[in-house]
Design goal:
The protein is of the alpha/beta class. The chain has eleven helices and seven strands. Helices cover 43% and strands 11% of the residues.
């Protein structure tokens, strides 16, 4: 799939949160593969932009059309049932079907203070955060899934962050991202006797618009940022997740992945596609190698933070038990109970 890739001609897709990041990358790839893509979110022409970012849905649609695809922009606040219900009615009336539902709604970054632990967190915007990042997904699936169940076919993709079962570093971030994976699992279980499949898709180190801006680079010279962060060497464009979504939608046996958390670069190796630069990034193994090296000598402050972050992510993964044990020893974690200790061998 390094060339043209599979086609989705005649399919209808909805990408909720198509304004930027993984959502934009997925919308572009689905459109380039021939699907009619409904691009939704809050940042559309004539409306305030979200997350203090300049990107807009209209730009996503323009990119799809420039590649010869079809795109429809619908400004929707996915926390509002009436707007999502109206979206479902519009897709039913205009397209008559829905084959692919991708939920990449996020917008939570401004509401998280990564420097604070849960006992220090400012909870003044907690309800708004949960509404935006989690309940919006429940609402969207509630109103769009019936179009797929009625036809007894389709794919629902929850875009999350992190394909390990461990902790993601901030209680509110972890709460929502883990809940989204659980949402996909729960939907998959309830859809098991239908022709509809639900699963989760996680990008790796994503070169989103915000990340590129943070490093002071553009996609054309992204490698310049490796000097600032060596982990950036295994980063990926949002279009890798897009190609992953296309591969899943085109797979006649995708039901075997129902309920699973799929990692974009793992799917690239499985289905045989690459990122737009011809690479298949491998961020997890780079991270593992770096922290293994750190753990081989006394840890300083930054090294301890990285080792702890990786331990939190992988300690429940039996395949990484040996690395988790090494990190636990380096961190002096010798009295952890079964819930926090390295996973047992299987």
């Amino acid at each position: 799939m390094t060339g043209e890739g599979p086609r989705l001609d005649g399919r209808v897709a909805l990408v909720a949160g198509a304004t930027r990041g993984a959502g934009r990358g997925i919308a572009r790839a689905l459109g380039e593969a021939g699907a009619l893509v409904f691009c939704t979110g809050r940042s559309a022409a004539g409306y305030p932009k979200g997350m203090d970012r300049p990107e807009m849905l209209d730009e996503t649609a323009a990119l799809i059309r420039e590649a010869g695809g079809q795109a429809v922009v619908v400004r929707v606040d996915h926390t509002r049932e009436d707007e999502v219900a109206a979206l479902a009615a519009r897709i039913r009336d205009e397209a008559g079907r829905l084959d692919i539902l991708v939920d990449s709604v996020w917008g939570g970054d401004p509401m998280i203070d990564w420097s604070r632990r849960f006992w220090e967190a400012d909870l003044s915007n907690l309800r708004a955060y949960v509404d935006q990042t989690l309940l919006s997904h429940v609402i969207t699936s509630r109103y769009l899934a019936p179009l797929m169940v009625e036809a007894d076919r389709g794919l629902i993709v929850e875009v999350i962050d992190g394909h390990f079962a461990g902790y993601r570093g901030h209680i509110l971030y972890d709460l929502v991202k883990a809940a989204l994976a659980r949402l996909a699992y729960g939907m998959a279980m309830e859809l098991a006797r239908t022709g509809v499949t639900a699963l989760s898709l996680s990008p790796g180190f994503l070169r989103s618009e915000a990340v590129l801006e943070h490093f002071g680079v553009r996609e054309e010279n992204w490698r310049d940022a490796i000097a600032k962060d060596p982990y950036f060497a295994e980063s990926e464009t949002p279009r890798l997740s897009g190609r992953a979504a296309v591969a899943l939608a085109a797979d006649p046996n995708v039901k075997r992945k129902a309920g699973l958390v799929c990692f974009a670069s793992d799917l690239a190796r499985e289905y045989g596609f690459t990122d737009v630069d011809g690479r298949v990034p491998d961020f997890p193994n780079l991270f593992d190698a770096k922290v293994r090296e750190l753990a081989s000598r006394p840890l300083d402050g930054d090294g301890r933070d990285l080792a702890w972050a990786r331990y939190c992510q992988i300690h429940q993964d039996p395949k990484r038990r040996e690395l988790a044990q090494l990190l636990a020893e380096a961190l002096g974690l010798d009295d952890l109970g079964p819930g926090l200790a390295p996973a047992a061998r299987v």
